[in-house]
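Changelog note: in this version the structure field was regenerated for every chain. One regenerated record is shown below for reference.
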Amino acid sequence: MKKKRVIMERIVRLSRSNDDWTIKFWQKCGAQARFSAAWEMVGDFYKIRGKNGFQLRLQKNIESIKRV
């Protein structure tokens, strides 16, 4: 499946900057693009810290609940 590339740009004075444009951009990209960008940032974080980000995975918590 080929990725659809979204390109948006805006030039404003810093004093007039707000989050509306950023919200519209990420809404247009969709959930998969947001997740992919967030996961890429996690990998970048590990690389900046000098750790190997090769085996990154989502955290799993396992609990046992028993009725008393």
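Spot check on this record: The two ends are 50 Å apart (CA to CA). The mean pLDDT is 81.
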